[in-house]
Amino acid sequence: MRAATEQDGYAAFLARKVHFEHACGFTIDDGEIHPLLKPHQRRVVQWAVGGGRRALFEAFGLGKTMQQLEILRLTLKHAGGGRGLIVAPLGVRQEFRRDAEKLGLAITFIRSIDEAAADGLYITNYETVRDGKLDPRAFTAASLDEAGILRGFGGSKTFREFMRLFAGDGGRGPTGTGRNDGGIKYRFVATATPSPNEYIELLAYAAYLDIMDVSAAKTRFFKRNSEKADTLTLHPHKVEEFWLWVASWAIFLQRPSDLGREYSDEGYDLPPLDVRWHEIKVDHREAGAEKDGQGRMFRNAAMGLSEAAKEKRDTLPARVAKLMEIRAEDPDAHRIIWHDLEAERLAIEAAIPDVVSVYGSQDLDARENAVIAFSDGQTRELASKPVLLGSGCNFQRHCSWAIFLGIGFKFSDFIQAIHRVHRFLQPGRVRIDLIYAESEREIRKVLQGKWERHKELVAAMTKIIRTYGLAEASMAHAARRSIGVERREASGEGWKLINNDTVIETRAMESDSVDLIVSSLPFSTQYEYTPSYNDFGHSDDNEHFWRQMDFLTPELLRVLRPGRVAAIHVKDRIQPGGINGFGFQTVEPFSDECIAHFRRHGWAFLGRKTIVTDVVRENNQTYRLGWTEQCKDGSRMGAGMPEYVLLFRKAPTDRSNGYADVKVVKDKARYTRARWQFDAHGFMRSSGNRRLMPEDLIGVPASDVFKLFREHSRTAVYDFEHDVKLGEALEAVNQLPPTFMLLQPVSWHPDVWTDVARMRTLNMIQERKGKEMHLCPLQFDIVDRLIEQFSNKGETVYDPFGGLATVPYCAVKMERRGIACELSGGYFDDGVAHMRTVEAEMATPSLFDLMRAVDPQVHP
């Protein structure tokens, strides 16, 4: 009965993991919506107001302006009043004024909170909020119109910080838990189809709407790039779930009929798009040279920022000439000329005296007046950067022609700029001319590739909306199918692997049946290994993770023999400044939480072993310890994050002497008193050899320098300043790599391991076989040492999170019996293959075995 009750409790816990519902708004009747809105607009308004925090990602011209006005009006009505704020790009306020008049609403443009004394609707520019002239938290509801414009305010960091201002602290307290209503309660985003390629942008919107933290979403859906923190790739098994999750709080709408056949597409046909590419020839004799002096055969703007900038400068006269040639086809046409550099703006103004320019340092009122005049057809030609006017502005009433004086890699700005004129309700055929240099062919190729992927991913989102509509419950039901796993088992001489949920499997094991537990925990939300909700990595936060561990840890204590050890591999985690509330990255002491958790379940804590990692590689993953940032402000600098093996012990049956029921006995003939004394002392004397000098390292290959410095660090008396000088000498001749730490300090202490070979994992075999790599493989060195220290030959070693079967693999090699449980079917299959290989290796006789078979007197 107890087991059934526990199982029911665990099943209920897993079921609660499926949560697509995050509504905080109001249910409204269709009759409350202004009759002027079209059917698809009315449906979206109902959905958004009901959610309270929603994103409208709709194609250009579907009526987001009118929808935002109605969403705020109805939200304020049901909230009992208050002030509603729309934040929009420069030049867009006239669009809201036009639609507000149609709806019979009053909307006031403001530049400070003093101008918003009464309840009602207000509109302001992004610059006003960015410059601190208006605190958005004085409003009950707010909508960010064309929020993608924030990319131009300093990149993704500023983007997230801006939205955090609206959300208070993102809905989290300083520790990342607990509600905080310091921000705007009802929040909306309305932007014309953000690029699905820009995952970081989508995650930032989710954080702003208080759907999920950016870091949690990264963990749940994406592969991590060990070199760059914000380079994200969706797990193949997570693609559908990711877009289902996005569709639960955002709507990607390309046409009204995406909501169902009852919604007519009449009047929503995009005009034909005529795209023309114009290539400018370049002189390849001036291609330059590589860093090593090797001459280049061709000029290539895609080789780096400096090369791209040089190509822009060198080809500017030819590109302007091509611009004038294109203009000559219809000199009196209305058109917009897009450019990226100030030098290009000046060149355009010199070539076309009548052009109206909009630029960054311009007076804001002058900039907005210029945009309005062009939008209303009062001026004929406008020149600006996509990052300034690429979002929000509607130019289709009088303009159907855009010329790009140059191209770049920023697809989001590019596609937004095109859709200033190519949008619904555009009466004419749209022409787009793109001028680029021959040396920018690779840039054109990348840009076109992103365009195609953009179309594919938008189509995927459209398919989800068509399949599930706007019903969160149906999406949650679709995702619920991934709870549970069909148990499988494989075994051989000295090993057994099980494909199952580790909680369920460990509960079925006999008490006191395991002699040693060696395992690497899933590190809370750091990694997610499978699409199953049984996955411990599929957690909302640490507290949620430890709640699932509450079902497993007591079972581990039960199955371990009295007096024996559980060695748990963990690592502390980095918490981003946007989540912890401090504005800078801090350390989340996951290892300390692990100790507290195990002690709470009756384990005795013995100590920890420290495994030093490469601080340079770590910084490339987190951007936390950057050299440049520390030179700006050293007070932000923490320290590298080592890994730990935490040692826990189950109390023995006889507590009078503390010995295990089955002791781990050392042979004194092999483990000598002398060896014990050196191990216990923890330090080594210098060999007396002279110190390594900088000139010894100059010109030596990096691999040899790495080995030489390790030996130096292991044998020489430590001198911090001397070792720094070695590094500075290598840096002076460009021999200090920026991607890994070449001169790594070596520990003399037996509980600080600096000699763990990071590459010695089963991933080496996985890579050779072309199979999927494990996200966080456990090193052989760690497992071997733990098995040697804490178990006897012939005993059983268990890993409840088996992965690729590293622990049983090492156990069998060391003449133990290995058992592991693994949830991932793919990892289980690969682990079985590894175990059959090592089983065959152990069973194959050696040369000495064969010789002894002939002559028993032969010794190895």
Task: Tell me the total number of β-strands.
Answer: 26
Second-tier CATH architecture of the largest domain: 3-Layer(aba) Sandwich
Q: What oligomeric state do the depicted chains represent?
A: single chain
- Mean of residue pLDDT values: 77
CATH domain class name of the largest domain: Alpha Beta
CATH superfamily caption of the largest domain: Vaccinia Virus protein VP39
What is the 3D form?
elongated
Which strand order spans the largest sheet, edge to edge or round the barrel?
A: 16-17-26-25-18-19-23-22-24
How would you portray this structure in words?
By secondary structure, this protein is an alpha/beta fold. It folds into 3 domains: 40-259, Tandem AAA-ATPase domain (Rossmann fold), CATH 3.40.50.10810; 273-468, Rossmann fold (3-Layer(aba) Sandwich); 496-627 and 749-843, Vaccinia Virus protein VP39 (Rossmann fold). Strand 14 (401-404), helix 14 and strand 15 form a beta-alpha-beta unit. Helix 6 (156-166) runs parallel beside helix 7 (199-208), helix 28 (780-790) packs across helix 29 and helix 29 runs parallel beside helix 30 (825-843). The protein is elongated, with a radius of gyration of 32 Å.
